[in-house]
Prior knowledge:
The protein is an alpha+beta fold. It has 2 domains: 3-46 and 148-224 and 330-372, FAD/NAD(P)-binding domain, CATH 3.50.50; 88-140 and 226-322, D-Amino Acid Oxidase, Chain A, domain 2. The chain has 8 helices and 20 strands. Helix 1 packs parallel to helix 5, helix 1 (12-21) runs parallel beside helix 8 and helix 2 (60-79) packs across helix 8. The radius of gyration is 21 Å and the shape is elongated. The model has no long low-confidence stretch (mean pLDDT 97). The protein binds flavin-adenine dinucleotide.
Amino acid sequence: MDCQIAIIGAGAVGLAIAAELSKYYQDIVCIEKHVHFGNGASSRNSEVIHAGIYYPHNSLKAKLCVEGNSLIYDWCQKYNVPHQKLGKLIIATSTNELEHLHDIYQQGKRNGLDKLELISQEKIKEIEPNIYAIEAINSTTTGIIDSHQFMQSLENFGYNNSVTYSYNSEIIAIEKIPNGYELTLRSDNETFTITAEIVINAAGLYADKISEMLQINTTENNYSLYFARGHYFRLSGKYHNYVKKLIYPVPVRNWTGIGIHITKDLNGYLKLGPDVEYLTKNIEDYSFNYNKINEFYEAAKRYIPTLSIEDLTPDQTGIRAKLQRQGEPFRDFIIKEESSLNLPNFINLIGIESPGLTSSLAIARYVKKIIEGL
Ligand SMILES: Cc1cc2nc3c(=O)[nH]c(=O)nc-3n(C[C@H](O)[C@H](O)[C@H](O)COP(=O)(O)OP(=O)(O)OC[C@H]3O[C@@H](n4cnc5c(N)ncnc54)[C@H](O)[C@@H]3O)c2cc1C
């Protein structure tokens, strides 16, 4: 075999897996179709280190987010990745949101977040005088991170442990061979093959397509992905450092997103977003629909009373890899070795949407445990 482990995709998840495995294994290749790491969801997101509040107890999303949260703070300290543990408030702005707010609080407690607290309107005013809310959940372990620097530190770690990064190399076919897999890569219109004992599919938006290369029936296995775009609007300079914490509304009870919220970057500038817009086709269409401005303004005006529509300017969009269709119930991350599909040593990671960035280091440890058990 040319290598022991081939990882498809150099987003935060593929890079984290390469870094973790490089401590224990040799001959690791991380294969990425772009010329650089992190061109997918990993560089088009809110850059929030989530606490793990919303997800159903015992789901992978809950477990890996809670574990990933503390791992990522430790990593940032150790490798000087810019971050801030600024905390977040999930706010109710009307009495009919209170029941759901309390349910979310209980969910967070069940997920092991002992420090979560419910705070009153008075206390909210003390912390965030510019925000209107009648009650809130105060999450102190939520934070923000420079995702690019984080990925750079993962790549550096891998380089130091002899990981090979094969950029500008698109996987176009995979074949099962005795004791492993043969991967066909295309680079600048040339194709070549490499063989690997273990293959890890961390291809983000295309993880279902990679599975199909091995004749996995994605419909039967419920592996099909649906692209859901999210827009962000930037708030004008007068809102610089307008809040201390991240501010999230109570989400609607349908699991597609967690509501148009305020995120703050490491320089103190504020953004609103993201919304959830399912695309009709799975194409990476990052275009910005400016007509969304009213929806964003109305959503944020409920908790930023001073806001005027002129304060919003288009920022960026990102695309989520969702396993659930619009309106369908919660779906968990799929992280699975596929012996049951006659594909031993092939590990699929599908539907790694939020909180995938936060969970990346915990996902990497989870994958390592799967490999140990092979
Ligand atoms: C709008 C939005 C907001 C989000 N906010 C947050 C947040 O605040 N906090 C949080 O924790 N998470 C958040 N997420 C989720 C987080 O961004 C993702 O879970 C995470 O980035 C997924 O990383 P990944 O490595 O799996 O995917 P990606 O970053 O998409 O990486 C996959 C890589 O695989 C490569 N690839 C695909 N096909 C091939 C192929 N055939 N050959 C070679 N390479 C291939 C791609 O080019 C890509 O680089 C958000 C996501 C979105 C879209």
